[in-house]
Amino acid sequence: MSDSFRALRLNKNDDGQSHEFVELTENDLMEGDVTITVSHSTLNYKDGLALTGASPVVRVWPMIPGIDFAGTVEKSSHADFKEGDDVILNGWGVGETHFGGYAGKARVKGDWLVKRPAAISAAQSMAIGTAGYTAMLCVMALADTSTDAGEILVTGAAGGVGSVALALLSKMGYQAVASTGRKEEEAYLTSLGAARVIDRNSLSEKGRPLDKEQWAGVVDAVGSHTLANAIAQTKYGGTVAACGLAQGPDLPATVMPFILRGVTLAGIDSVMAPREKREAAWAQLAEHLDLDKLDAMSSQATLDDLPALGEKILAGQTRGRLIVTL
Ligand code: NDP
Question: Is 288 near ligand 1, meaning CB less than 6 Å away?
């Protein structure tokens, strides 16, 4: 059929989860007031969880995964969007409870969409993706931290959130310190703007409730002992933006850094963030993200590569960001 498009679909039955590549038509899409021709998507950690079934990210079956997409509006009955508008979608349960970005077309609520800033191409917007937009939300949470207050720690630095956070922080004039388990990525992390690189093992074991004050602020994508140690090492009055759980969802910390040093723990959620905050984040990404650095941290993939790449991102074997061309 001429209006058919290709999609990656996840199925689940008594034998477990499986994937297939299917040809669909618009009639197969879910409810929504805007239909989009999807040009690009990406792979985030959460997409890895959905693709492999390692965590119950997908809650409606069958599902087209992909929590992000970029594309052009084909049809719209939403007041804010018209045919030809270039749009971005991040989160809102897309790829979890509503068909997502791993398909040639998508239909969603217009309220979930953000207009793509002119300075950022569709491919670049997916190189940013939820990971990069979350990095921006983390950096926005550090807005009260002056650039001469000291070093900002970035954990999970060679991953998607970490890579974009490093590029943003260095462009904005901060001294960013990259914590990584991949020493071989030191040159990459320095090229993104890390002032220095530390071994993540120095943060990943149980530490002291209060440690030597080192960080003016923190962007943490890792959680668990790493986050607890980062909090314990944050300087008086500093802010720790917590967005991830690559090491674990636990937080084996004490209240001491909060009550003795006035440290702030800022929780970062990208999925249900209100539209105004998203628009502010995308406007700041357009202003502050060095697109040459973004290109340097991005690699390309197709729909067919995604099942294998889902395994790799969970194993910590992908670097930076991945652009999926539909
Ligand atoms: P990536 O897999 O690209 O990056 C995660 C990085 O964490 C890895 O590259 C690795 O960095 C580090 N890491 C992995 N395993 C461990 C471990 N056991 N101990 C310490 N460090 C580890 O994922 P993303 O950047 O896309 O996402 C990062 C985290 O943020 C995820 O947990 C994700 O779920 C979360 N997230 C949350 C969002 C929100 O709305 N709150 C939105 C987007 C992501 P290195 O090799 O440098 O050590």
Answer: no
221 Cβ closer than 6 Å to some ligand 1 atom: yes
Place of tokens 């959460």: 46
From the alpha carbon of 185, which atom of ligand 1 is closest?
Answer: 47
222 lines ligand 1 (CB under 6 A): yes
User: Mean pLDDT throughout 139-146?
Assistant: 97
Helix (H) or strand (E) holding 164: helix 160-171
Q: What is the pLDDT of residues 234-275, one digit of tens each?
A: 999 999 999 999 999 999 999 999 999 999 999 999 999 999
Measure the CA–CA gap between 289 and 136, rounded to whole angstroms: 9
CA distance 128 to 25: 28
What number of residues does the chain have? 326
Structure-token pair, residue 220: 């943490």
Closest CA to 24 of 59, 63, 76, 55: 63
What are the chain's domains? 5-116+295-325 (3.90.180.10), 130-267 (3.40.50.720)
pTM of the shown model: 0.94
